[in-house]
Amino acid sequence: MTDKLNGDAPQDPLKPYKGRFETYNRIPEKGREADHLLEELSLMAEEENAAWKTGKISGTYYHAGDEHRAFLNKTFSFFSHVNTIQFDLCPSMAKFESEIISMTANMLNGEAVKAVNPSDEVCGTVTSGGSESIAMAVKAYRDKARAEKGITAPEIIMPKTAHPAFNKAGEYFGVRMVMVPVDFPDFRVSPERVEAQINQNTVAIVGSAGNYPYGLIDPLAELSEMALKHKIGFHVDGCLGGFVLPWIEKLGYKIPSFDFRLPGVTSISADTHKFGYALKGTSVVLYRNPSFRRYQYFAFPDWPGGIYASPTSAGSRSGGLSAATWASMVSLGEAGYLEAARAIMKVSDEIRAAVDDIDELIVIGEPTFLVSFRSETLDIFHVNDFMKTKGWRFNCLQLPPALHFCVTLPQTRVPGLGDQFREDLAEGVSYAKQKAGTPAQSSALYGLAGTVDGNQQVTELLCGVFDHMYAI
Asked: Residue 193 in 3-state DSSP?
């Protein structure tokens, strides 16, 4: 193993292995020995795993522990070479994916649709992640409205807090995304503001359960009634909360209805690779009935290579991911998901209590597994600067400045984490008071945002980061 690390040289955070391991800008003439490669890869993984094992990283890592991860990796290995689109050769893929869809639909009260219309039956597909689940729903609403209503300039109304994957899908599929600001200090979208934007081109509205910035659930019951009234689609984005909110509700926490119990909900996205504890690269998009899903499919019959069709935007996908997702759900069972939710909420409640006990900080809304907070008396990014020195990694929010911490299972495996958070946060607030009137390191990116020029600078900056990341 080559190790050329110069301890005195400044380290590029995006290129920490440069100079330590061999760099390849072409395929080597002779392949390297597997043992040497595995040694290097093991070292990289060990160093990167050290961060999440502290329990101080917000979100990001959703797995259910090393033992569960090893079990999923072994499951993946049985089907890693399988292509899910070749289901005739590998009928296991049809079994895994149909059962993943059915189990997810059942978890999200899919049977409730029959109370409204006995002929309805929740259906869906497995996708590569939340962004694809959202994109497929956007495509389905666009094509359904075009075919059945003649709408050629489709619009979808979404809260400002909804995931940017909707904006990405709108750009890809030519759908205008109408952004509605959230109300202060509720930080949830106003149904009245949404309804004011509905017009003859509106094909759907969006609500989150919960949204990424604050973890809050939009007023979905009111949005459901609105969708029925105007005969438009209603997508609930449960990519973040879809696989944890049902279990939190079963534990006795007050969770407003967000699933197919609401009669106006026509589709839901929920990520199996988050709180479903599957391997990264899977999600589920569900529809109230097949009349929506049929517009998601792509078919191209006039091709010399044969009739081509795919259920999602992806073509080839590794069957290992579907097998591992199925194995995660079946091995954990309801009891496993309930226990995980219980452990998560214990830590989350401790974190919320610590924030509530500091006068200078304000908890945003009524959080569950994700706690966001802001301040009206100090620069919250100074708090973040200090917490970084203690190993904590928050997610910085803007408009207004705030921080959030998303609790996943790794945080539940660190004894006394809630007490450590309380102690460090109090020190962080004291630090922020001392730094009053000085710029915080964490606020630089936010300071550019909010204006046309600032947003352009941010876009150029991030494009530059991507360019740098993909350079040798």
From this structure: helix
SS3 (DSSP) at 401: coil
Q: Which residues neighbour 159 within 8 Å (Cβ) at sequence distance 6 or greater?
A: 179, 180, 181, 182, 188, 189, 194, 206, 207, 208, 211, 218
Across 5-9, 181-185, 447-451, 454-458, the highest mean pLDDT is recorded for 181-185
Closest CA to 166 of 182, 150, 180: 180
| C-alpha torsion sign, points 304, 306, 312, 316 | negative
Confidence of residue 321 (pLDDT cuts 50, 70, 90): very high
What pTM was computed for the model?
0.91
Domain 79-326, CATH class in plain words: alpha beta
Give 466's pLDDT tier (boundaries 50, 70, 90).
Answer: low
Task: Give dist(CA 214, CA 211) in Å, integer.
Answer: 6
pLDDT at 444 over 80: no
Q: What separation in angstroms does the CA of 192 have from each of 195, 225, 267, 315, 450?
A: 5, 12, 22, 41, 24
CATH of 334-442, one of 3.40.350.10, 3.20.20.370, 3.40.462.10, 3.90.1150.10: 3.90.1150.10
Q: Give the integer Cα–Cα distance in Å for 3 and 17.
A: 9
Do the strands 176-180 and 233-238 form a parallel or antiparallel pair, or are they unpaired?
unpaired
- Distance between CA atoms of 114 and 289, rounded to whole angstroms? 10
Compute the chain's Rg from CA coordinates: 23
Residue 442: DSSP 8-state: G
* Rounded-to-5 percentages of helix, strand, coil across the chain: 45, 15, 40
